[in-house]
Every structure is written in structure tokens, then in C-alpha cells.
Amino acid sequence: MPHLLHKAQQMRFFIGGMRLFTFTFDFTEQDYIDYNIFYTHHMRRNRLEKYLRYGLPVLPILYLFLNSFLEGNDFDPISIGITILIFLSIYMFITRKKSYDKLIAMNVKKYIRGKGKDHLFGMRTMTFDENDFLDRTEYEEIKTKYTKLTEIKDAEHGIYLFTAPMIAVILPNRIFSSAEEKSRFLEFIQSKIQQTG
Which of 42, 62, 73, 124 has its CA at a distance of 20 to 30 angstroms from the CA of residue 143? Predict the structure, then answer.
């Protein structure tokens, strides 16, 4: 169930010719879950999942073909029906997105509780200027140069700024006051990665 999210405070202005974006928002567990679901579906190279997704539908047909070819027996409609039903049930269970997303969310929650990562959440302020961006929370401040950015992903629930293959700065969509504002920020951040690329 999605968390009740606080509305983000957002500003964009110019100081001495430098364009500056500042976002203050409540970073929630759901934001972290949304990122992990996106990463698992789009970024992670999960070979087992791909084999299951594309291989399982072929197995019943292969089984039926080999059974009839090698044994030379007539088709048994009951065995055929049961076999197809079993394989389709397994296939739907594994590849059904909602079920899979729930499983990812459950694993992320277990990880958060087990590793004591609750301090990741809460109010944070992110400031983007011409040379770097600053992530400030109650516990720490992290300044990152744009040269550290490796990839930018505009996803369903937010913008993810990757600084390593598995690490990203998470900017939920709700921090932007409008689609136009989000578009301007994307142009700004993409120009930075192009300059440093």
C-alpha cells in the first residue's frame, strides 16, 4: 500500500547567473521500494528470470512433441491438459508483474529492517548548482560532482541519477511542481552529464 506522502517543497531560481534547483521532500520507504522495483525490471541482468519468462511457454510443446515422437503413442488428452495447465500456472506465477513487484517490496522491507537502514528515510534537501549537487539530511551531507553521474533514468515514479551500476540518487516525481518543471530539470541534468561525458 503506498505511503501517504508529504508534498514536496521545490524552488528554482538564479543566483549570479547560476541556475540552481533545490528540492526539500520527505524521502519514504515506498520511494526506495519503487526504485528497487524499477532497478530489478530494467537495470538488473537477471538471467534466471529471463530464462523462466521465455523458456517456460516452450516446455509443454517440447514435452508433447518428444512424448509422441519417442514413444509413438497416441496423444492422451488428459495428460496433455494437465501438463499445459501446470506449466501455464508456473509461468503466470513467475512472470506476473504484480506478484513479482510484491515479492521485491517484501524483500526490500526485510533488508531495511535487517540492516537497520531506517535512517535513510525522512526529510532531505537536495541542491543542484553548476558544478555539483548536495544531498543534505538530518544525519549527513554528501556533495557529488556531476562527473560521478553515469546514467540518468526517467522512470514511472521518479528520476534516478546513477553514480554507480547499483547506486542512484532517487528523486520522486512528486518533488516537481509540474511536468514542465520536471522536463526543465531533466534538460539541466542531462546537459551536465553531456559536459562531463
Answer: 42
DSSP string, 137-191: ESS-EEEEEGGG--EEEE-SSEEEEEEETTEEEEEEGGGSSSHHHHHHHHHHHHH
List Cβ neighbours of 3 (8 Å cut-off, separation of 6 or more). 28, 29, 30
Quickly list H helices, 47-143: 47-55, 58-71, 77-95, 97-115
Cell readout for 41 is 525490471
Q: pLDDT tens digit string along 100-154?
A: 788 888 888 888 887 666 678 999 999 999 889 999 998 889 999 999 999 999 9
Q: What does residue 56 show for φ and ψ, rounded to 5 degrees?
A: -60, -40
- pTM listed for this prediction: 0.67
3-state DSSP call for residue 21? strand
C-alpha dihedral (127, 129, 133, 136), degrees to nearest 10: -30
Stronger pLDDT, 86 or 64, i.e. the higher one: 86
Strand 167-172: give its sheet, edge to edge: 151-154, 158-164, 167-172
What is the tens place of the pLDDT at every residue in 153-178?
999 999 999 998 888 999 999 999 99
